[in-house]
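Chain A, query sequence.
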Amino acid sequence: MKNGKIGVTTENIFPVIKKFLYSDHEIFLRELISNSVDATQKLKALSSMGDVKGELGDLTIRVSADKEAKTLTVTDRGIGMTADEVERYINQIAFSSAEEFMEKYKNQAIIGHFGLGFYSAFMVADKVEIFTRSYKEGAKTVHWSCEGSPEYEMEETAEQRDRGTTIVLHLSADTLEYGEDSKVEELLRKYCRFLPVPIAFGKVKEWKDGKYVDTNKDNIINNIAPLWTVKPTEITAEQYKEFYHELYPIGEEPLFSIHLNIDYPFHLTGILYFPKIRNNFEIQKNKIQLYSNQVYVTDQVEGIVPEYLTLLHGVIDSPDIPLNVSRSYLQSDSNVKKISNYITRKVADRLQELFTTMRADYEQKWDDLKIFIEYGIITDEKFAEKAESFMLWKTTEGKYFTAEEYKEVVKGNQTDKNGTVVFLYVDDPVEKNSFLESAKAKGYDVLVMDGQLDNHYVNWYESKHKDARFVRVDSDVIDKLIQKDETLKMSLSEAQQEIMRPVFESQMPKDEKIHYNISFEAMAADAAPVVITQNEFMRRMKEMAAISGGGMSQFYSQMPDNFTIAVNGNNPIVIDILADVEKSYGDKLKTITKKIDAAVAEERRFDEVVKGKKEEELTPEEKSTREELSKKIVTLRDERDTRLREIGGENKLVKQIIDLALLSNGLLKGKNLTEFIQRSISLIEK
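Chain A, predicted structure.
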């Protein structure tokens, strides 16, 4: 027996391994299985070159857990090791046998160059044993053991055993879960499901005599020839779908797939899928799995895949992506940028191909594809350049156009007096139906923009195309959505608007989270008496901030929503309300209005007298006169407005037409809605 000290540069590397070297303790099993796969692949390579005599036999890697003995065992029938090789590859931590082998046999598929992988076993084990015998003729069995310190024991024995290596982990008290069959199988399926050598964990079970019993058939964990390793020309559309469901058993049918396959200037294979995304796209991220020669590494692929493509599902396999010892974090490398650019180009080319050759099918899938493409456009300039030719806009009629196609369709009727093409859109055709129908009545075409990223995309498009802008149909009254040279005149004079303003203010909705303004607009006489609009810019900024998060989200979330109650100054109902108000106020309205007009005229005459004087040049008497005149006007207007609010507060028709507008915008709820219904019934009964 040989006792020795493991060749390490620190006094005790094991605490480092246990706490810092690996970011995730459970990957120890991946590392051990990967080593077994390496050993098996080496044996196959040597055999193919005639360096191994005879049949290789069953090369299945076997894993077993013994809960009672508190052990976990991994056995392979690979190349095995001699005592000298154990000395070199196990006792000298920094050296990797796979790396040396790769140098010698460059064209063979060895996972390799993870020199410290074996020692990850000490993250979960107090003691690790190795039983190994080399494939070489006359080789003896070697037994090696270590209890988590630099000291080890190693001896050659006369024990007759099969070629290959068995590693036995004696689990620590705080990691006994790795002795549970369910936990071990979970890890094997996560990390080893596509390794190129069969991995058996126990036997397939069957239901017999009221319980599950083992059969004689091995429970093979992995698919040794996953679809991305097959030539694309040999794969059917159905096989792509089947593989998707192998990756995501409960996922819906994907929209389509992209097969990645490149050998120069780097090696990369894989299959990416465009999934159907329903609501919150954020939760769909981290669905792409990264592999290195079929060894699972991570699903954190930021840096390899462009940000917008993290919404995709699928597999990327590349031995050229640099990883640290835990294979969990990318290191800076020029290949990573090249890979990212390649994937971007491949995705864009595939989308262009589908659009060009299968446009009808592309349009049918557009509602699901849209979020990927918009995300790419607003986050990746190179993708945006390509995507303009296959980005589609959908109209309320269910037709699809590229931006250039649509611009040609609408520019004749939807260009404003400044020469800007106005694209009208609606976020909810059902909820905003009254606005939509008003736009259609004017002969306008309306787009549907109901996606999570539409506001961001609209902003991006406007920044690139200064001769166009997007306007939601409820952002202003219909005649102001696309301003033309000709304008409607309003029946209400400015003086009448002053009288009507406090009348409508008396019935304004009260809501701490919503701020309402009143405006009087010239609309068609047969248009609604009251329309509620929301400013395009402020609404868009607030909605964008809500999705983007961060400081701006908090800033905008604290601001109330702003709506404008636009009163139609040409509607007969509004004119009738004015007549009712004037009748209710009586002659006193004319009297006080005359007083206000006289006071305003007197103030103007005074302003003419002192015109040109600076503030410091005014005499005390002039300042006093100015203050008295201003106070007189305010007092008279307050008196009139107070009475007008009283009259307005008693006018059910004012409340009714405001509530109708609120109802059409989905803003009438709770008690206010109940009162509206009761009031409507009472008005009908009259």
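Residues 94-99, 104-115, 324-329 have pLDDT under 50 and may be disordered. The longest strand covers residues 199-208.
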